[in-house]
């Protein structure tokens, strides 16, 4: 079973890896974007970590909805509302249980990812965060490590794609050959689950 | 790249402090990142709120004032602001007559303004929205996020601002804003990339002797890279791309806009070529604006925006405006 | 370096054609290189003529209009105009009340305006002259050409322009202009050199991580090169250099001026620091202007000008002005 | 004796050498000036050559006064009035004789150089065109070739000087170590005499 502490560790681990990888994320956002993805998420997850520290929410659902609200209020850009919605909707789906099973979490995360697809209108193959998130959710039944591998593979697989959503779509064919920054940060987010589980 | 800054993290806050000092006629809330005209809310008048990433100055903060925006929400550099800012701005400018959000068509701006609109309506503020998407360099199809909002934003904010200033109701102000957008088209070129404070190096490499055609205003590369062209050739390409997409029957407003680092001397020279091409193509010009209005940090280059105007739009364009970035008649 | 031009030889003529198209309220004589307000000569009023090398836009051509200059003479890039231009301008704006030449203190400008003054007087035009020399980076001694004229030119042109507009006689307009100059001081820094169309490469090498302190407006290096400083440190240095030279008793007008390629976002941030230093030093501020007004092509950097004003100067500063580059009250 | 034709050849030769050396003159004007000296003189001497062609003045004095007036009307900058005055005053000093002796010319040129010193206020050693012109006039008694050598030496000798006039003076000590562009173009002007004489 996964408790509030687990989800707090997930967010802290993600905040740390985003910090570590911020420059790389921004660099990926340069050739096909506007060079801000790393600093956007850094600002957001720093705020998430601070809010979790301060408000100390007691259930898995409360941890994630608070994190999502923080992202919406501090990130801006496309990724703010999208990641914010992902966590908020996942948190809402978890309800107010004190602990949730891995299965319940997998279902909730799928609800979150679906909400991102509805909000942003992206489908798999559009060269967005969805390309890492959907495979990760699909693999979650096989454990966090499998989900991490699927997310990383999904992120790498965005390179040959032509973008159909987000800024990169403005480039048309010139978007081909670059890895999507959002898919890359989604892989970091999923990797945070492995860390949180201490696997 | 060297910048005249303290540290990257405080660039937007520092600029807002500097704006506050230079423009006592504006209320600049540095902490909450909202710029509001001092006399807001103006009784009986629709409030106009816009915003977007910073780095496009004078857009949007420099267009706050009588006859144009009621408030602006500056995000981080090239990053859409967050819904909290827009909600705060809406609350500050709503006199009961409602608020018009003017949103450039970028995924981030659209999503954040949409969230803010929901929150504002929850608080009993009537909100309408005009989406600006004038950039013909982007194919508007299922396979893109749609056309970007660029230079036409200035025309939408000025003309809708004049309508609001006259006390026109929200639906009318919204309709006027939409009409301006529908009659506007832009095309931009870059001679250099720009450097964001966060990244500290140019957003893309552009070798000497090459230029980017069809760029936006966020340092992203354009649709195409070519061998360097003369100002006359660039004018033909840019105006040509616009006229391929729109055939003005009425006179046009022309914006020859610098991306930030191109000297005014060059912009005026470029304008001469733009006017030559327009005359050759039989397009009549009502008014021309040359300068740095919708910029992309320190990018070198320029964009052309044409806005086809009828008598009423032209009347609203000519109405008095008093903002840091655009001022006449008052 | 890439430029948005046709060929180097036509840069000034092209820009004048573009100005003509954008500003029907000005008469732009492209062949003779004179920009005159359309209603000149204005009966009974002193005519104000300035000019200098091109590349400083909007100075001077962008300051022609009611309440400021009557005419401007643009030279080649960074090259003083020739006496023929000034004579033509003087003849076009003289209503019989005389003409004031506003001359930035550079050997070329001084010599050419002096020759023009002689020629104009031969033609029966009464001419007076104000020399602008506000740049504290240059030691004024027998061993230099004297202090350069930079940012204060804007204040002289605006305030003397207002005096002329009120119908004050030539001696008074001249005296006001001198008073403004005597009460003004400037200091500039460059983060990059600029590139003239004729040369096509930067006028000097400035390695990453270094800046030039005490630059002028012609791409010349400054007095000193240092390791890159923060915006706050630069403000302390620039304001410090000015206050070492002048102790304002009255409030000051502040011009935080961009050299051309520094984004407005950075200029506002720099202004925040300038205002902080002024407050710390006990200098009170009457009004602040932030933007690209006296530029040096595509140079990155900024200058600070302080102009100490009494009530009368402030009144003239606030008087209406209607030019492409500066406009209010009308 | 030197006739109008000789002075016309002087101007044409100078126009050609200024064309050839324009980039170098502008380059010299970069580190201690504003990078326009070459294009300034190119514009001016092109106009001089055209005017001489068109108006075909018939006396030495008329050739040089016309050339001087053209420089004043087309060059601008510091060098326009200074070189314009040099040629105009030299021409005036030659009066309306149809031919002049080498001595008369040397005297007239000295009057021209004096006028430049009065107008610009520069003295020898101030790192200006004067540092090439004064030695040239002093050597003119020994012939054009000697004058050319003196002017070239004078131009080279400006390198170690600190400028006291013109833009370079703004640089203070940083003007040391650079050859003065105006002294360099003055050496070209004097070299034009040798060419005109066919020596
Ligand atoms: N419509 C969308 N649906 C899903 N993800 C999207 C969408 N648009 C953009 N993204 C993701 O957002 C990332 C960019 O985020 P970021 O750089 O922070 O925002 P912005 O593009 O506003 O600068 C992209 O790499 C992409 O993965
Ligand atoms: N006061 C002066 N007296 C004599 N020569 C001068 C003076 N000032 C400048 N010069 C000469 O003029 C040259 C510069 O000419 P130019 O570059 O054409 O004009 P500007 O300095 O106006 O750009 C200098 O190299 C110097 O030789
Ligand atoms: Mg981005
Ligand atoms: Mg962004
Ligand atoms: Mg010059
Ligand atoms: Mg020069």
Describe the structure.
The complex is a heterotetramer, with 2 copies of chain A (199 residues) and 2 copies of chain B (330 residues). With 199 residues, chain A is mainly alpha-helical. Chain A has 8 helices and 2 strands, in the order E-H-H-H-H-E-H-H-H-H. Chain A has a two-stranded antiparallel sheet with strand order 1-2. In chain A, helix 1 (4-28) runs antiparallel to helix 2 (37-55), helix 6 runs antiparallel to helix 7 (144-156) and helix 7 (144-156) packs antiparallel against helix 8. The radius of gyration of chain A is 15 Å and the shape is globular. The mean pLDDT of chain A is 97. In chain B, a hairpin with a 4-residue loop joins strand 13 (321-322) and strand 14. Chain B has helices at 11-22, 83-93, 107-122, 152-165, 170-182, 231-243, 264-280, 311-318, and strands at residues 26-29, 34-37, 47-54, 71-77, 99-104, 127-132, 184-190, 210-213, 224-227, 252-258, 285-291, 301-308, 321-322, 327-328. Chain B contains 8 helices and 14 strands. Chain B starts with 10 loop residues before the first helix and ends with a strand. Chain B is of the alpha/beta class and 330 residues long. Helices cover 32% and strands 23% of the residues of chain B. The model of chain B has no long low-confidence stretch (mean pLDDT 96). The chains are: A mainly alpha (199), B alpha/beta (330). The complex binds adenosine-5'-diphosphate (ADP) (2 copies) and magnesium ion (4 copies). One magnesium ion (MG) sits between chains C (53, 78-79, 108) and D (34, 36, 77). One magnesium ion (MG) binds next to loops of chain A.
